[in-house]
């Protein structure tokens, strides 16, 4: 919470008010024991807030306050973009901060998942956290995407493809059906109970649908 404490002059026409932080505790049952230090003066309970502001007004400068817009313009003049390279500083590969959905794409004609970082094929794998698509160029490329995310990307790609198809292309090409668990292509199989769809990565994912 901010309130105007007193104006300090930066330029004669545009004094910038000084702002002060107040910590407001919302639980009405809170007991605040303040040591007699100035640092604790700005901690109040919600029910004390009104009285606190009224009291503070008496020592704040309310006369000739500039408009909020002019205050903003004045403050913006002091804005400088941060010169720190966060990625370098903490040794982070910028790719690692990329959303999972953007790290993989589904090639609907080749029916494979492609790594967006290095354009190599992604391979379905399993570890103790579950199914994931990892780049076949590992360890050079460490891209990996959870199977559920890949399935969503595949589904969206398929839906977009279907939407864009016209009558003639629809006659010649049918997009693959995709597994809702891992995103891999489903295969039509025949069993005793009739035809069913099975995930092509049978060893890792046991999705089946009749
Ligand atoms: Zn890769
Ligand atoms: Zn599957």
SSE blueprint and pairings:
Blueprint: E1 2-8, E2 16-21, E3 23-25, E4 43-45, H1 46-57, H2 68-76, H3 86-89, E5 104-107, E6 112-115, E7 122-127, E8 130-135, E9 144-146, H4 147-164, H5 167-172, E10 186-191, E11 194-199, E12 208-209
The structure holds zinc ion (2 copies).
Give an overview in words.
This protein has 210 residues and is α+β, with helices and mostly antiparallel strands. It folds into two domains: 2-76, no CATH class; 95-209, no CATH class. The chain has five helices and twelve strands. The protein binds zinc ion (ZN) (2 copies).
Q: Looking at the structure, what is the overall shape?
A: elongated
**What value does the Rg take, in angstroms?**
30 Å
Q: Cofactors and ligands present? A: zinc ion
- What is the helix tally? 5
Which properties best describe this structure?
12 strands, 23% helix, binds zinc ion, 3-stranded antiparallel sheet, alpha+beta, disordered N terminus
Structure at a glance:
It contains five helices and twelve strands. With 210 residues, it is an alpha+beta fold. It folds into two domains: 2-76, no CATH class; 95-209, no CATH class.
